[in-house]
Amino acid sequence: MGRFQGIIGIALILGLAFLFSNNRKKINYRLVFSGMALQIVIALLVFKVPPVSRFFQALGHGMQKIEEFAFQGASFVYGGIAVEKQPGIIANYRGGGFVFAFNVTATIILVCALVAVFYHYGIMQRVVAVIARAMNFVMRVSGAEALSNVASAFVGQVEAQVMIRPYLQGMTKSELLASMSGSLACIAGGILVVYANMGAAAGLDLAPKLITASLMAAPGALVIAKIVFPETEESQTMGKVKLEVKSHYTNVIDAISHGAGDGFKIAMNVIAMLIGFIAVIAVLDWGLIKIGHLFNPHFDLSLNYIFGKVFYPMAWSMGVPDGDVNNVATLLGQKLSINEFVAFQNLTNKSVPIVSEKGLLIVSIAICGFANFSSVGMQIGGIGEIAPGRRTDLAKLGLKALLCGTLASYLSATIAGILI
Known about the structure:
The chain is mainly α. About 70% of the residues lie in helices and about 0% in strands.
């Protein structure tokens, strides 16, 4: 029955994309089906081929080691702070305590510094270019949008656009939407490591699922974007993938410095968003509870209750087992309306528990992406700084990109759910 539900989910997701398409007659169905085939191949390799599964599990263990390395830096800075190691037991932070802001900040800073080093030596660009060429060959998309979407699986949503800076000004609107959608559907390496380690701390093996989600999101975003906004113009980079490998850092020390500084900005943004959004949610829930009690003193109306009802049909159609549908729907609503960090926090601390392995797989992939309303503003502002002449187009395409990024994540999650 779950697989049948998943087929309904794929039909629903593609149907929504078709409904919002601005030119249904120009949809390239070869691109659509080849992109979905690529998603299926990625999922099959990860979940059904033992050597590949073991490789991704090893990557997951590597992510845990990154957090351990990051802790060395954090313990030097925060070593004198007393924290609650276990309920009722106070310990020095350096002795193994956990403070969310300290640990998350350290991990993001380390990953961003490492990415900057890889970028300086040209490793990141070459890995992205190889994968982009493969996707370009399979799906016949333009070089610029292939590069951007593959880069989004490794770096942040604005940083991915830096890799195609020379092409941004001349990209077609369809290419621009595809690039924005890919950045919203994927998730940056630093944040992915944080989520994987949040899961590991809670006894959840999320790392292979999250890596798979980010890889599947690249072709998935192109599939949805090319349905919503088919290509009708002449692309400057059709059929070719060319990436500038030259580093803008002076040397490796400069790369580490800039990477750590950028990581700190990202970490502070994450912390600020969490404080702000969680506080606003508390205010809204307080007001909703008061409203609910006006009708029934035992009815505790809340945002989670509303999300659970609104996103229930989508969660069910994606193949989520019946016992988890309501909670998965709640997390889908939190991710889209608030941000993915709140959704992952509630998933890993089990305040919104998921009991089935299949439900955990589907929701992990579905919420692994930057597609939320605040990210749209970040994209318009960030990419607009890189290509000021495209700011108007970015603003017009923002909500379409949010729709495409969200549906792409749902499509990846549904396909993965069918295959397990």
